[in-house]
Design a protein that fits this description.
Oligomer: heterodimer
Number of domains of chain A: 1
Largest interface: A-B, 35 and 46 residues
Helix content of chain A: over 70%
Largest sheet of chain B: 2 strands, antiparallel
Helix content of chain B: over 70%
Largest sheet of chain A: none
Strand content of chain B: under 5%
Distance between the termini of chain A: 168 Å
């Protein structure tokens, strides 16, 4: 131990100087601890806490975003399916309506054609009847002029009927 | 070799103490500037720099002493690091150790250069064993305090003298005398920690100072122009080395203190897992 103390004395160890250095160092330590490191460490810890909190929030928001994206995708898929269904329904309804209208138009056209045919037939009958009557009248008139006498109603009727019969044949 | 007294009437006022006071003043001034308007977002460069140093040390020391203790020991270890590194770098400034007013025969005169003085006005404070030993003693006092607070006296004694290695009862009892003997060796080793810590720092800084002085005086016997040129060029590479040594020694001192705290405050079972 004495050797150690002798060595220390050789390299300049001295109690008063040691004490003075200790006081200087300890003073710096105590002042820094109270007024510098305490507040700085508090700030660093607060900052760390906030960073950790922000990271946790970020993770939570990221999870929520992922969930929202999944929900969004589901909603879009559901909407797309619904839209497709509506389109199909509209297409089917449109096709059915078109078919119905087409059938209606066909039947209406057929009805109009039928009606026109009937009208044409009636008109034809009427015209034929009128033509026959006119021909009969002309035959009677012509015959009357050729014969040179006035034909009796019976002759007129017979001649007219003969002429019509000849025309029909 | 040792720190010299500036006035013979005051036995504690040495040139290295003067440097310690200047360094303390610089650190306190800087710390005041850095913490004046402390906010979550750093408002000025000193706060940024101060926080950077503290945060780096926080992360480094947290890995050594653990999360529970880092808040308690960080102020001291930060002070230690900042004080040592500032004092070491301050000691490299031109004029420190080379300018003084006390001549070779003890006569007081105007400020003169290294060749003409016996006692420099300023000396690197860590080139004085009293400074490094003082810091080591303060550390040992706090170390003992933290250790007792963390593990308690009984556990501390068991840690020092008790059987280790998870032995069975009979085996532990049989080996108890050996462990007690090893415990005494451990006590001696712990008692010498302040000496090893302080001598390491003192030796490195004192050697650096001597190296720079020697290099500066290499051309003393040459003509004055060459002497001047050599006194500037010869120590230049060693200044860069000393800048690095100053930082490394501050780190070594601080990290060793952290390791000593860790060793005495960790439980034996934890240590077992780590080994």
């Amino acid at each position: 131990m004495q050797e150690v103390l002798n060595f220390l004395n050789t390299v300049g160890f001295d109690w008063p100087k040691l004490l003075a250095q200790i006081i200087v160092f300890a003073t710096v330590y105590l002042i820094l601890k109270k007024y510098a490191f305490g507040p700085v460490i508090s700030v660093l810890e607060e900052r760390r806490r906030r960073i950790a909190e922000s990271e946790a929030n970020y993770e939570r928001i990221k999870q929520q975003l992922a969930d929202a994206e999944i929900r969004h995708k589901e909603i879009v898929e559901k909407a797309a399916a619904e839209a497709q269904r509506l389109i199909n329904e509209a297409r089917d309804a449109g096709a059915a309506l078109s078919e119905r209208k087409k059938q209606e138009a066909i039947s209406e056209a057929a009805r109009i054609v039928e009606k026109a045919k009937e009208a044409t037939a009636l008109e034809h009958e009427k015209m034929v009847a009128e033509l026959r009557a006119e021909i009969g009248r002309l035959v009677v008139e012509t015959t009357g002029r050729v014969v040179g006498r006035i034909l009796t109603p019976d002759d007129q009727k017979r001649l007219s009927e003969d002429a019509v019969r000849h025309m029909s044949n | 070799m040792s720190a010299k007294l500036l006035t013979p009437s005051i036995s504690w006022l040495s040139n290295s103490l003067l440097v310690s006071v200047i360094v303390a003043g610089l650190i306190l001034f800087f710390a005041r500037r850095a913490t004046k308007s402390l906010g979550l977002v750093p408002a000025n460069t000193p706060q940024n720099l101060f926080e950077f140093i503290v945060e780096q040390l926080y992360e480094t020391l947290e890995g050594i002493v653990g999360k529970e203790l880092v808040g308690k020991v960080l102020p001291f270890l930060c002070t230690l690091f900042i004080f040592i590194v500032t004092a070491n770098w301050f000691g490299l400034l031109p004029g420190v150790g080379t300018i003084g007013s006390v001549g070779p025969n003890g006569e007081l005169g105007p400020l003169r250069s290294a060749n003409e003085i016996a006692i420099p006005l300023l000396r690197p404070s860590n080139a004085d064993l009293n400074m490094t030993f003082g810091m080591a003693l303060v550390f040992m006092f706090l170390w003992l305090n933290w250790t007792m607070q963390t593990v308690g006296f009984k556990n501390f004694m068991v840690h020092m003298f008790g059987p280790k290695g998870g032995l069975g009862k009979a085996m532990a009892l049989g080996l108890l005398p050996i462990f007690i003997f090893v415990g005494f060796i451990e006590v001696i080793s712990t008692a010498f920690r302040p000496l090893s810590l302080s001598l390491r720092l003192y030796g490195n800084i004192y050697a650096g100072e001597t190296l720079l002085h020697t290099m500066s005086g290499l051309g003393d016997k040459l003509p004055s122009a060459f002497s001047f040129l050599l006194s500037v060029l010869a120590p230049l590479p060693f200044y860069f080395l000393e800048i690095l040594v100053a930082l490394l020694q501050a780190l070594v001192f601080t990290l060793l203190c952290a390791v000593y705290i860790r060793l005495s405050t960790s439980h034996d079972d934890e240590e077992g897992h780590e080994h």
